[in-house]
Structures are given as structure tokens and as C-alpha cells.
Target: GNAT family N-acetyltransferase
Amino acid sequence: MSVIGPRPPAHVLDNPALASLTGPHAHFAERRGRVLRYPVDVSPWLALPDEPEARDWADLAALAGAGAEVPLNGYCGDVPEDWEITFHVGGVQLVDDGLAAAPDAEAVRLGPPDVPEMLDLVGRTQPGPFLPRTVEMGTYLGIRREGALVAMAGERLRPPGWTEISAVCTDPAARGQGLAGRLILAVAHGIRERGDTPFLHTSARNTNAIRLYESLGFRLRRTTSFLAAKAPQRLTDGRAAVPVG
Model:
């Protein structure tokens, strides 16, 4: 007779938002029950427990607001049947596996005064969510040409021992010069200097970005999901769950 052993402990990168909001980014956390989120002007990431129950989904709806669209990035479980899935695309999580991390002489530190330019660059390049206070999540570096910000990259989630590289983008007129790769390695250098390991997420469809990241020294750790769902107007007990699929 076979015996099923204890379930292995989860890795912090399996639920990175939860690990971040209960760890180095705890000062950002807004909480209702076991559900945590970043302030809505900092990041759309929020954290469900590893195995959410009906009460957790009710708390999530109350925290987000009835009928609100809620990002569930990285969540791969079931969604209650009275929640409407509005977005679902495959993603990948990659981790440092030999990055040649190094500072970059042309990279400059970006901060709150640079946010209007950063938001403008993000709006033109669409690297993913970047909000008015996202810059507070960690170090952001940029490259300027003739005074204009043409490329940037920075830090987002902070699970213990790890830091996510995010908001990697380059103005279309400055592409093909290797700026994104240089900034990734410069941000990674700062991450390693404080003893953390870099990681990142991207869409599984973004094959060009995945090739760049792998060429720099990232390796695939796992596949994941970028998911959003609309909360119901009212919640009831005893709801069934439907697969994300």
C-alpha cells in the first residue's frame, strides 16, 4: 500500500505577492481577512492565500468593491462561479541563472520627480502596469538621451530573498541599441548587492522578451497565469468553484 507523504512546502515564488506583502513590502499591505493588496496607485498585484476559501473570495470582493475587475496574477486555482473571468493569458516566471550583472555608467536613478516621464514612456511602450507610486516599490534606473527618458527598468515584488525586475521598456526610436539588456543587468546588480536574487514575469506570448531574458542568463522556473475576474455584486455562502481552464 502506498502512503502519501506530507505536501512539500510552497516556494516563496509560487505566491510572490503574498510573500512580498507579508515580508519586505508589508508596509504597503492593505488587508481584509487573509487577503492583501498593494494600494491601487502603487501596484495592481494582490495576494490570496495559497488555497482560498469562500470567505477569502468574499473578503476580496469587499476589498475591491462589488462588481470590480480584480487582477489575479499568478493564481492558477479555481474561481467561484459567480465571478466572471474577464482576462486570462499564460505567463512565465524566470529566475537568475548566471546573469552578468553589472552597473551601467549611463544609467541614472529615477524617483518621484521623474514619474510623469516614466508614465509617458510606459504609455507608449506598454511593458505592463506602472502607476503613479510604483516607483516606491524599489530602485528604478533609466537612460536619457538629449535629456529625454528613452529606456527604464526597475524593481517590483519583493518576496524574501528575491526581487522582481519589471517595467522594462525602451522608446521605439531607441530600440536596437541594447538599452533594455543593459538596464536589466544594472538593476540585477543592485539586487544582488543587497543579497537578493533577481526574477521576473512576462507573457508566454512575448517570445522576443523571453529570448532576451534567456540570453542574459535567466531560466524558466515555471509557467503561470495573468488572470482578471469581475467580482459579483453580491456574494452568498456555499458557492461552487469553476476551473480557470
